[in-house]
Design brief:
By secondary structure, the protein is mainly α. It has four helices and no strands. The chain folds into two domains: 30 residues; 37 residues, no CATH class. The chain is elongated.
Length: 78
């Protein structure tokens, strides 16, 4: 770690918890707000479609217990 970065880190650690959280969020977003590749875009579209379908018909969702039971069955773990 460069001396400049070390100093910046020490300054950031002196901030309030709320300010550190805001700063961390801004830094995280600056790293992860890059354009999605085709695969990521397809997964995001699928997730959004499934979320919209669930919002329209929440009764069609599967509970956590049933979800993991289905996964275990498909993997042959049960």
């Amino acid at each position: 770690m460069s001396p400049e970065l070390k100093e910046l880190e020490q300054q950031a650690l002196r901030l309030s918890a709320e300010d550190r959280e805001l700063l961390a969020n801004h830094l995280f977003q600056s790293v992860h707000n890059q354009a999605l590749n085709e695969i990521d875009e397809a997964w995001m579209q699928l997730a959004e479609e499934r979320f919209r379908a669930w919002k329209e018909h929440p009764e069609s969702g599967v509970g956590e217990k049933e979800f993991f039971e289905r996964i275990e069955q498909k993997l042959g773990w049960s």
